[in-house]
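tool_log.txt
---
The assistant was asked to compare two proteins side by side. It first ran the structure predictor on the initial sequence, then on the second. Raw inputs and outputs are pasted verbatim so the downstream comparison step can read them without reformatting.
(1)
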Amino acid sequence: MTEQQPNQLNIEISEEVAEGTYANLAIITHSHAEFVIDFVNVMPGTPKSKVKSRIILTPQHAKRFMKAMTENIQKYEAINGTIKDLEEIQLPMNFGGPTAQA
């Protein structure tokens, strides 16, 4: 029989959640009590996109999440090189959709 450490957290994940949801846009809003992050999958040439997932965090957890993301991005870049910001990459304004004619 294995004894669980006093501060050890046992986390389970369902098969559906483990598959994940793709998002290429995050919209962040906040109030005095919470941060809301809406994850959206925006597809080129589609006029409407739906929020795929919404995460609500306390300000303290939002700050811890930011620190954890910063640390993980630094670790990733140490192994894989600098991640180019989308603003540094010149994307065509039509984002893959039909080209407008004047």
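(2)
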Amino acid sequence: MKKVKVDKKTCIGCGACVALAPESFEMDEKGKSKPIDPAGDDQAVIQSAIDSCPVKAISWEEK
């Protein structure tokens, strides 16, 4: 099963991932993206959020 990983040091908090996959991402208390439910959105939707990240802070991680 794939899991989503967000590199907090790279994330700029633009919110694109939350806008595209709101069931899988949310912003944390520091304004950075964090994965919340890997089954929340379809993998294609999550992939579009990964692809839209302007700083490439989101990636798949094999679990």
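---
observation on (2): Strands lie at 2-6, 25-27, 33-35, 58-62. The domain at 2-62 is CATH 3.30.70.20 (Alpha-Beta Plaits).
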